[in-house]
Amino acid sequence: MTAFSPVHPRLPRRHALQAGSIGLLGLGMNHVTALRAADAVPQTDAPPARSVIYIFLSGGLGQHDSFDMKPDAPEEIRGEFRPISTSTPGTQICEHLPRLAQRSHLWSLVRSLTHPYNEHSQGHMVMLSGRSKLPPTFNAAKPTPLDWPSIAAIAGDQTVPRNNLPPAVALPERLVHRTGRVIPGQFAGVMGSRRDPWFIEAAPFNGTTYGAFPEYEFHHARGPENRDGLKFQAPNLTLPEGLGRSRVDRRLDLLRHVEEQRVALEQAAPIQQFDQYRQAAISLLSDPSVRHAFDVVNADDDVQDRYGRNSFGWSLLMARRLVEAGVNLVQVNLGNNETWDTHGNAFPHLKDQLYPPTDRALAALLDDLHERGMLESTLIVVAGEFGRTPKTSLLPRHYAQPGRDHWGGVQTVLLAGGGVKGGRVIGSSDKQGAYPADDPQRPENLAATIYQALGLPATAAWNDDLGRPHHIFHGDPIGGLT
What we know:
The chain is α/β, with parallel strands linked by helices. The protein is built from 13 helices and 19 strands. The protein has a single domain (23-471), classed as Alkaline Phosphatase, subunit A (3-Layer(aba) Sandwich), CATH 3.40.720.10.
C-alpha cells in the first residue's frame, strides 16, 4: 500500500453499517459531511434537487456492436450483430438490446465523443474526471494525490446534502484490476482524499471471472463460469448485537464503539462538532428510506424480476433507491475488472452474458424513474473509458473467436432524463466508426452536461486548502440534448 490511500471512505463489504461503524464512525461521514461544513464554499441559493446516475462500463463498450452500428460496412467492421429499429423512426441499435430499443423515446445518443487515449487507466482518468489532458503526475499503475478530481468527488463537494447520506456515492465496488491494482480517476485527487466519494462495496473483489454474477458470470477466454462464494451484500443497517436504541440515546455507551476512530476525527474537524456529526451518522439507523435503499437483494420478487437477480440489476436498483432517498450523484460501476474489455469472444459474450442483464436493468431503471416522475430531474449517463477498434481481430493464443481492441477515437454515450429529450442522436462517426464525422464532443463536454444537470452554475469552483478556487467547468454542455 502506498502512502496515498484511496480506500479511506469506502465501506468494507462484510462490515455492518452499525453504530460503531457508520457515518463519521467509519462510513466516511467524517470527511464527507463534517469536513464539508468546515471548508466547503458557502452556497446561498441552493439549486433545486436534481440527480445524476453515471453508469460506467469499465473496459469499454464497442460502438459498432451497440449504438452506432455500421451494417453497410465490410464484415470485419460491422461485426456479427445486426441493427433493429427503435421506437424512434430512423434510429437503430443492436438487435440484442430490445428493451432499450422499445424505450428510445426516453433516451438520446451522442455518437461522437472522442479522446486520444487507448489505455485503460488513461481512459478511466479522462472519462471519470471530465478532463482530456492527463494530470502532470499521472501514473497508470495507481492513483496519485495530484490526479484530477473525479466527477463524483466534485459532485460530492459542490452539491448540497439533502439528508444524512453523502451527496455522491459510487457502487457496487471500486474499480480494481484483477491484479489488485486500483485504477486511477475515481477519487478526489488534488482535492484531498477527505473529499473522495463514498464507496459502497457491495460486490466482493473478483479477479477471476467477470460480469453480472451470479446469473451472467463469465471468463473472457473460457466462457460462462460460476465462482462459488460471490455474494452481493449491501450494508446492513442494524445496531450491534446487544445495543438497543435506549443505549444509542445514551451517547456515553456509544463511545467505546468509536474510540479508535475518535483521534482521527479530532484531527480532521473541530472537536466541538463531534456530537453534531456523530448524531447525524447515527440517525441513518432510524431512516427507513435509507435502510430500504440498501436492501435490494430482498426486494419484492416482481422488482427483482424486472431489474434482474444479479449484480447489474441490484446495482441499478440501489442507485434508483439512493437517488430517491436524496443522493445527488450515484456512479454505478457496471462490471468488475474491466468487464467490457472484449478483446476476444466478443460476440457470444456480449450476446449471452453482457447485454441481457444490462438491457433488462437499464430498461427497468428508465421505467421506474419515468413512472415515479423522477426521470425529468434525474440524468442517466452510460459511458465507458473508450470505444473499440473499427476492425475486429483475433488473438488465437487467448481466444477462440474475434473481438475488438481499445479505441479512444470515438464512442457512443447514452443519456436520458435530466431534461434530455428522448429520441435524439447528437453527432456521428465516420463510415468505419473510427472518428467523429461531425459535432465531436470531449470528456469536458460530458462532464459539463453532468454538472449542469446537478444545477451547478458555469462559474462553479472548488477551493483548495489555501482558499484558491479551481474551475469545475472545462467545456460547454453537449448541445442539442434539451
